[in-house]
């Protein structure tokens, strides 16, 4: 039977690349079926659970027969107030939970939908390279153009704002920033945020700061919010999430905070696409945000121990990397001047069963790098690093 020529996906789908982790998952299933003990250090998925009192709150709320209906778009009042409380406690930033905040089904959808709500066809979105893929795919789906801002080691993985050409700045509608950064683990000083805000005010574009890693920090470092800077609410929104901050990735719950006009646009767009999160998820999240935070100290200590194991081992395997002060990633340059990160990561997986994410998955500036995720139990991290050292020795001999 011949198939009608119109029976095919929309042309805009061509700008969506195949999802890297889908292909990787299939490969890992095959290797495991063949008996290989694969250690995954590729995805940024926390392995640890949230504190028991948060899970108890979820169960209690789910036991209430009246908690199973549709929820208000953008979250319940208590969920929104809890995030406003978090912003006050953590950053000293006052947020109006009615107008300056909207709940999300995880920050990924908010990041993508922000572009849909804000970018016109032909507008430019300024996007870090390497960077989280939805900054680019959201802008492209909205019909925008993407101008990539390279993040280079010599500039501490901050974009060089002075290198953006004037005609690009004229057409810029949205700038994505993300600190603490995925995939590089870099942090941004407040002066960098101030410089970006001055540029956004001068050229009339919105800064969307994606900040899901502010609560995972080490060695006494405290990560700021961009909204702490003077004038930030005029040109900034910030995305946050329960996923990494509270080990709740599967719960799919986050927030966008900041400029009221941008928040309203996102809210309007979202209310045409989805509905509010499940009430028990919102209730437990509200408790997590407002209750005792001390369990996060021990959680971060576990990530720090893993970070040290990884950074030491990679260096002794001849790879260059910074010791990150935040987030759950070590960004490392391949040994011996190797440039093909996909081929190298493939070889590592095939020969010693350790999976890392090739740098070019995050953009062309990731060439010659791999991202090592710390969301794996510590003893498995140690085992993986022993294997990486063996892999290196085998290559040399
Ligand atoms: C930079 C960044 N932003 C956003 C997200 C999405 O997080 P979630 O949708 O779970 O809130 C991630 C997840 O890996 C991330 O690394």
Q: What is the topology?
A:
Layout: H1 20-33, E1 39-40, H2 52-62, H3 77-91, E2 101-104, H4 107-118, E3 124-129, H5 134-141, E4 145-150, H6 166-171, E5 172-177, H7 190-203, E6 206-210, H8 232-235, E7 236-241, H9 242-245, E8 254-258, H10 260-271, H11 279-290, H12 295-316, E9 320-321, E10 329-333, H13 341-352, E11 354-355, E12 357-358, E13 369-373, H14 378-396
Parallel strand pairs: 1-11, 3-4, 3-5, 5-6, 6-7
Antiparallel strand pairs: 2-8, 7-8, 9-10, 10-13, 12-13
Helix pairs in contact: 2-11, 3-11, 4-5, 4-10, 12-14
Bound molecules: pyridoxal-5'-phosphate.
Pyridoxal-5'-phosphate is lined by residues 44, 106-108, 111, 132, 178, 182, 210, 212, 241, 243, 249, 254.
Describe the structure.
With 397 residues, the protein is α/β, with parallel strands linked by helices. The chain folds into two domains: 11-49 and 295-396, Aspartate Aminotransferase, domain 1; 66-290, Aspartate Aminotransferase, domain 2, CATH 3.40.640.10. The protein contains 14 helices and 13 strands. Strands 2-8-7-6-5-3-4 form a seven-stranded mixed beta sheet, with helices on both faces. A four-stranded antiparallel beta sheet has the order 9-10-13-12. A two-stranded parallel sheet has the order 1-11. Helix 3 runs parallel beside helix 11 and helix 12 (295-316) packs parallel to helix 14. The longest helix has 22 residues, at 295-316. The protein starts with 19 loop residues before the first helix and ends with a helix. The structure holds pyridoxal-5'-phosphate. Pyridoxal-5'-phosphate (PLP) binds at residues 44, 106-108, 111, 132, 178, 182, 210, 212, 241, 243, 249, 254.
């Amino acid at each position: 039977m011949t198939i009608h020529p119109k029976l095919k996906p929309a042309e805009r789908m061509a700008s969506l690349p195949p999802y890297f982790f889908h292909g990787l998952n299939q490969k890992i299933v095959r290797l495991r079926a063949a008996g290989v003990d694969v250690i995954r250090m590729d995805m940024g998925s926390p392995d640890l659970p949230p504190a028991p009192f948060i899970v108890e709150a979820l169960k209690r709320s789910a036991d209430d027969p009246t908690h199973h209906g549709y929820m208000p778009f953008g979250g319940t009042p208590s969920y929104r107030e809890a995030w406003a409380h978090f912003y006050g406690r953590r950053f000293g930033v006052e947020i109006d939970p009615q107008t300056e905040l909207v709940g999300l089904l995880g920050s990924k959808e908010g990041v993508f939908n922000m572009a849909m709500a804000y970018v016109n066809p032909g507008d430019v979105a300024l996007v870090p390279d390497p960077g989280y893929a939805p900054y680019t795919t959201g802008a492209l789906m909205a019909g925008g153009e993407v101008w990539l801002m390279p993040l280079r080691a010599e500039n501490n993985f901050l974009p060089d704002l002075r290198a953006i050409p004037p005609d690009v700045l004229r057409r810029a509608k949205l700038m994505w920033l993300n600190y603490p950064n995925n995939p590089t683990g870099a942090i941004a000083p407040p002066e960098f945020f101030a410089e970006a805000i001055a540029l956004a005010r001068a050229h009339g574009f919105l800064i969307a700061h994606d900040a899901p890693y502010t609560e995972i920090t080490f060695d006494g470092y405290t990560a700021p919010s961009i909204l702490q800077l003077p004038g930030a609410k005029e040109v900034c929104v910030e995305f946050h999430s329960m996923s990494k901050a509270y080990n709740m990735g599967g719960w799919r719950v986050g927030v966008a905070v900041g400029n009221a006009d941008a928040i309203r646009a996102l809210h309007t767009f979202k209310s045409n696409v989805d509905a509010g999160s499940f009430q028990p998820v919102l209730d437990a999240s509200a408790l997590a945000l407002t209750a005792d935070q001390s369990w996060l100290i021990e959680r971060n200590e576990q990530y720090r121990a893993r970070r040290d194991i990884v950074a030491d081992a990679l260096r002794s395997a001849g790879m260059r990397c910074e010791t990150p002060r935040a987030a759950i990633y070590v960004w490392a340059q391949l040994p011996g001047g190797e440039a093909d990160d996909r081929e190298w990561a493939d070889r590592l997986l095939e020969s010693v069963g350790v999976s890392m994410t090739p740098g070019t998955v995050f953009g062309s500036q990731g060439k010659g790098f791999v991202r090592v995720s710390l969301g794996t139990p510590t003893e498995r991290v140690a085992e993986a690093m022993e294997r990486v050292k063996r892999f290196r020795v085998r290559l040399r001999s």
